[in-house]
Amino acid sequence: MISADQSPLLVAAFAAYLASTLFYLLHLALRRPLLWRGAFFLVVTAFALQSVCLAERWFEAGYLPVTNLFATQFFFSWALAATYLYFEIRYRIHAAGLFVILLNLLLLTSALPRDPVIPPLIPALDTPLFTLHIFFSFVGYAFFAMAFSLAALYLLQRRIGTDLLPPLPLLRQLNEEAIFLGFCLFTLCLIFGSIWAYVAWGYYFSWNIKGVWSFLVWIFYAGMCHAKFVRRWQGTGYAWLSVAGFGVVLFTYLGIGLLLSSNHPLN
């Protein structure tokens, strides 16, 4: 059920993402180029609507509003759509976009029933370092989610070998690129987060559970950037690592914020 307080722009964006999913499914069944073009147009439309909604919330709050569960899911969805558009425009992955848009729909389906209220910002967060930390964190997460999607498609393509999906070498290349870009962005997230922590609390790193697991995410993906050069981890092994890595990301993002006590709660 969609909350009555949700922005009509966000509801319209959700409808456009849903319609794009249907167009992608029809493309898989009928193999008509016009259908994937329609799906892509709908994704661009949905992303534009979501971007306007984000700009409105940012202007209203006076800061990047990513401080509760609704806001993080909304921003994660926006970042994932932007990541997908990057790969679609650059590589023309077409039907491979279906899996990514389904992930996006899951995020928005979970977010829409929640209260979209923008809470006041506590003084410790009122700094550009907070904005940079959050921005690079979720865009990095989005690239890791994209890598997970590409890895799942790689494993599927390896099993069924269809011409509807990109060839295995391209899927492998895109997966490795998504991991590398996500790692670079997440590294910036940790750098700005450390500087922010020092300014706010006088230390660069603390042993709170969120900080520890964020460092574990960084270590895991640093290892993946190396693993692509190790023969036994190339191809299928790398795809399974991408799937496992996204599980670690989800626990760091949702598991800790919702189930455990930390300095990054999701209310």
TrEMBL record:
The lineage of its organism: Bacteria, Pseudomonadati, Thermodesulfobacteriota, Desulfuromonadia, Desulfuromonadales. GO terms for molecular function: heme binding. Keywords: Cytochrome c-type biogenesis, Membrane, Transmembrane, Transmembrane helix. GO terms for biological process: cytochrome complex assembly. It comes from Desulfuromonas soudanensis. Its main location: membrane. It is a multi-pass membrane protein. GO terms for cellular component: plasma membrane. Residues 67-260 form the Cytochrome c assembly protein domain. This is Cytochrome c biogenesis protein ResC. The keyword Oxidoreductase does not apply. Coiled coil: none annotated. The chain crosses the membrane at residues 6-26, 38-59, 65-86, 93-112, 132-157, 178-199, 211-230, 237-260. Pfam families: Cytochrom_C_asm. It is found in: Membrane. It comes from the Bacteria.
